[in-house]
């Protein structure tokens, strides 16, 4: 098979970066898994996790076959990818999706033949869409060359179709426009549903009937929330599957696309020093912490129907927990990883009401500035008891994790913006140096591994260390891998990675329906109880550290939150 047709634009850039990097190839935009390419032995480079990756000479036909699993008919001119952002006028589209697509284009990671379409009810011309998008596009901080030209080239490939979300006719109109741009090439189509969940099924029904690709693949990225509980999530899955095969559904959890979350498995499975310690034998507790220093800010209407447990814990934090706690997968293939995640999720105990603390932020005046409470948001119903903060203690009933508390804490309008994983290890039995450790509480002198997902990505390990000098005094110090120092290039946004993977047909970072069922099974009973019993959230001031109840919950399990110590907060 000739390596002609679609080429990743990265060819020139790729080799330039390889030269710049000095030694190893720079694998910034390779999808994770290219089985057919490996089979036919064309690829010479290896990715950082040892897997083969796309080379500059990857042909259309190879791409079609390897990435979609569906053999495309032989056609003149190779293949093309059209990405339709449904809900193009919305917040997420403007803030994340178009900028991520531009970043991929800028880095040479999009296929040669591609088009971006916006679809929404708002009336807009192509030009107006371009103006709207251009306001949020940014250039890589570390690589600004030709950015203006690249923006212009990218915008020329962006088009708009206005339509109702349930209109087969208007999706058929989109289909006609897509065909024009596809110009007889094998058409691959990706729809990104960046819309409120109540219209997911309308869009999937209409688009799958009248705007599916004939000959190439058709995939749908579906944004959260995937239902409100087990029942509604199951209903959504069944409705989607009336129109789509599971392989066409890419349920996105953008935390899985974050650099540090990606690195979690690398840390575990490619460093001998960690995996042997990764169990109840050495780990006392694990903490998954998410905080934002702003409130719901105009998204109160959406948020009030969900609350922080559904918004952050049931998906982002639980996904991280699954990656943290799963057994070693057979391989890095999507199904092997997702199988292990499902197993660990299914080993988890249903969360109990007594293991949950909920809070809601109230207005606060600080430094002469007043910060509104959640209930002051005009889009929030009066008297709402929706939690904007929650802390929870979860347990995995399997041999590896029996009895180890996995503590989660998530909140809006707190004192800082941060997401991190904290692993607190047991104390050293019969510690010879117990008298030399400043604190009398040996639990305070245990090792702690911290993966700071954001901001300022870092991995650090707290160790006990001798303070230099003639005496023998120990203190706690950090072995610190600060990304901005070690890797001084901009870290791609999670949406870039996930879009690239969806185009490549790589499902590893997307949620399978059985994973979703298992995730909802853990949280649904407690969510129901909180609502049925109308549990009142503990109020906390905007910009504070959240309800004190979170500390009592942790104390029940003999745990101290790691983010409150003076050297970390
Ligand atoms: N915004 C964010 O930060 C995040 C969002 N998400 C998820 O992404 C999806 C999109 O979010 P976001 O962009 O904030 O949503 P928006 O509320 O901005 O809605 C997107 C677009 O959908 C259309 N729309 C809005 N409400 C309705 C309605 N009731 N009926 C029909 N169409 C409507 C509007 O387009 P028009 O009127 O032009 O048709 C709007 O521009 C949601 O599922 C959300 O949960 C997930 C993570 C973060
Ligand atoms: O999914 C969501 O995530 C954002 C936080 O994402 P981040 O990447 O900025 O950390 C959160 O604000 C939002 O409420 C939630 O729906």
From TrEMBL:
Residues 85-263 form the Glucose-6-phosphate dehydrogenase NAD-binding domain. GO terms for biological process: glucose metabolic process; pentose-phosphate shunt, oxidative branch. It is an enzyme of class 1 (oxidoreductase). GO terms for cellular component: chloroplast stroma. Signal peptide: none annotated. The keyword Endoplasmic reticulum does not apply. Keywords: Carbohydrate metabolism, Glucose metabolism, NADP, Oxidoreductase. One of its GO terms (molecular function) is NADP binding. The keyword NADP applies. SUPFAM superfamilies: Glyceraldehyde-3-phosphate dehydrogenase-like, C-terminal domain, NAD(P)-binding Rossmann-fold domains. It catalyses: D-glucose 6-phosphate + NADP(+) = 6-phospho-D-glucono-1,5-lactone + NADPH + H(+). Coiled coil: none annotated. Residues 266-561 form the Glucose-6-phosphate dehydrogenase C-terminal domain. Pathway: Carbohydrate degradation; pentose phosphate pathway; D-ribulose 5-phosphate from D-glucose 6-phosphate (oxidative stage): step 1/3. Its EC number is 1.1.1.49. Belongs to the glucose-6-phosphate dehydrogenase family. HAMAP family: G6PD (MF_00966). Catalyzes the rate-limiting step of the oxidative pentose-phosphate pathway, which represents a route for the dissimilation of carbohydrates besides glycolysis. This is Glucose-6-phosphate 1-dehydrogenase. The gene is gn00253.
């Amino acid at each position: 098979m000739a390596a002609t047709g679609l080429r990743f634009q990265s060819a020139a850039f790729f080799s330039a970066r390889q030269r710049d990097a000095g030694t190893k190839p720079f694998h910034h935009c390779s999808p994770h898994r290219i089985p057919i390419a490996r089979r036919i032995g064309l690829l010479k480079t290896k990715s950082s996790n040892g897997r083969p990756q796309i080379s500059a000479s990857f042909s259309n036909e190879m791409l079609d076959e390897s990435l979609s699993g569906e053999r495309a008919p032989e056609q003149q001119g190779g293949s093309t990818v059209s990405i339709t952002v449904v809900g193009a006028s919305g917040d997420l589209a403007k803030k994340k999706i178009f900028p991520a697509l531009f970043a991929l284009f800028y880095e040479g990671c999009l296929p040669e033949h591609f088009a971006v379409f916006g679809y929404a009810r708002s009336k807009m011309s192509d030009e107006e869409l371009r103006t709207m998008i251009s306001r949020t596009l940014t250039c890589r901080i570390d690589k600004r060359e030709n950015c203006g030209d690249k923006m212009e080239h990218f915008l020329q490939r962006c088009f708009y179709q206005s339509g109702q979300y349930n209109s087969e006719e208007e999706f058929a109109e989109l289909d006609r426009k897509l065909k024009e741009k596809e110009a007889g090439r094998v058409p691959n189509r990706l729809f990104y549903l960046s819309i409120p969940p109540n219209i997911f099924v309308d869009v999937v029904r209409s688009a799958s009937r009248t705007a599916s690709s004939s000959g190439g693949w058709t995939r749908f990225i579906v944004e959260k929330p995937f239902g409100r509980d087990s029942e509604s999530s199951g209903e959504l899955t069944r409705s989607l599957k009336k129109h789509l095969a599971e392989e066409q559904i890419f349920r996105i959890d953008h935390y899985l696309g974050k650099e540090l979350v990606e690195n979690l498995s690398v840390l575990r499975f490619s460093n001998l020093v960690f995996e042997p310690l990764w169990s109840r034998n050495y780990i006392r507790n694990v903490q998954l912490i998410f905080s934002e220093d702003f409130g719901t800010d105009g998204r109160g209407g959406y948020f009030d129907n969900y609350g922080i447990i559904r918004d952050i814990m049931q998906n982002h934090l639980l996904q991280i927990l699954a990656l943290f706690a799963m057994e070693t997968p057979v391989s890095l293939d999507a199904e092997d990883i997702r199988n292990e995640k499902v197993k660990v999720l299914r080993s988890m105990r249903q969360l109990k009401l007594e293991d949950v603390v909920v809070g809601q932020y109230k207005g606060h005046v600080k430094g002469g500035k007043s910060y509104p409470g959640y209930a002051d948001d005009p889009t929030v119903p009066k008297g709402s008891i929706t939690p904007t903060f929650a802390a929870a203690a979860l347990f995995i009933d399997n041999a590896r994790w029996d009895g180890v508390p996995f503590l989660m804490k998530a909140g809006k309008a707190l004192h800082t913006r941060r997401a991190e994983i904290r692993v607190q290890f047991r104390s050293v039995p019969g510690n010879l140096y117990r008298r030399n450790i400043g604190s009398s509480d040996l639990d305070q002198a245990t090792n702690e591994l911290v993966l700071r997902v954001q901001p300022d990505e870092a991995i650090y390990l707290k160790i006990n260390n001798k303070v230099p000098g003639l005496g023998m005094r120990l203190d706690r110090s950090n072995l610190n891998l600060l990304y901005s120092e070690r890797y001084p290039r901009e870290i791609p946004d999670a949406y870039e990675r996930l879009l690239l993977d969806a185009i490549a047909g790589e499902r590893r970072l997307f949620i399978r329906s059985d994973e979703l069922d298992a995730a909802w099974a853990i949280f649904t009973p407690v969510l129901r109880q909180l609502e049925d019993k109308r549990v009142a959230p503990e109020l906390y001031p905007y910009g504070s550290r959240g309800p004190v109840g979170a500390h009592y919950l942790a104390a029940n399990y003999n745990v101290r939150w790691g983010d409150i110590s003076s050297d970390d907060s």
